[in-house]
Amino acid sequence: MIKNELTEIIKNRRSIRKYKPEQLTEEQLQTLLECGFLAPSGGNSQNWHVTVVQSEDFLKRLSAANRDSILADKNLPQEIKDRFSNSGYSVAFGAPTVFFISANGSVVNACFLAEHIVLTAESLGLGSCYLGGIMQFLKGENGKAFVEEMGVPEGYELLYGIAVGTPDEQPDAKPRDYTKVNYLR
Q1: Residue 122, SS3 per DSSP
Q2: Which tens digits make up the pLDDT trace of 67-77?
Q3: Rounded to two decimals, what is the model's pTM?
Q4: What gap in Å lies between CA 102 and CA 113, rounded to an integer?
Q5: Exposure pattern of 126-156 as b/e (b: 16+ CB <10 Å)?
Q6: What domains, with CATH codes, occur in the chain?
Q7: Are 96 and 22 in contact (CB under 8 A)?
Q8: How many Å apart are CA 16 and CA 181, to the nearest integer?
Q9: CB under 8 Å to 50, separation ≥6 — which residues?
Q10: CA quadruple 97, 153, 160, 10: dihedral positive or negative?
Q11: For residue 13, pLDDT beyond 80
Q12: Apex CA 87: angle with CA 136 and CA 23, to 5°?
């Protein structure tokens, strides 16, 4: 593989599920947003919306409500419930900042924006993790008040979150299956 700054950032990026408590600086936050918004979008539609949540109170309330919902679900197996039973459970794994990504139209454009944020975070020495599990709760009846509080614009679909913060772990890379390639030459 050719080595350069970008390929090393991509190779080193991991999903971080343990963060130090310090909040992002304003410069880090603005860099993440600016680089995210430089993502390509079909026809330059920029049909995305980002809600930045740095409220510790909001994240604690969201985590508690999601945990309570999961523990009350009679259809979930106990081993799933056990993962959420800890009173310190955090939907963001303790990250101080979560970027909630929404789209009005093409979801792909929002994916480009998200990946720009994630790679920029890695380049700044920050960790990140995509948060998809919380979406079922937020899209359900019990999550409507949280979505409203987040200010997701009318007509936009909330897709996922991205936890960002200073990593407090260094997980190893997981194996990749490089057989999933087809060549026509």
Answers
A1: helix
A2: 999 999 999 89
A3: 0.95
A4: 10
A5: bbbbebeebbebbeeeebeebbeebebeeeb
A6: 18-165 (3.40.109.10)
A7: yes
A8: 27
A9: 33, 36, 99, 100, 101, 102, 113
A10: negative
A11: yes
A12: 80
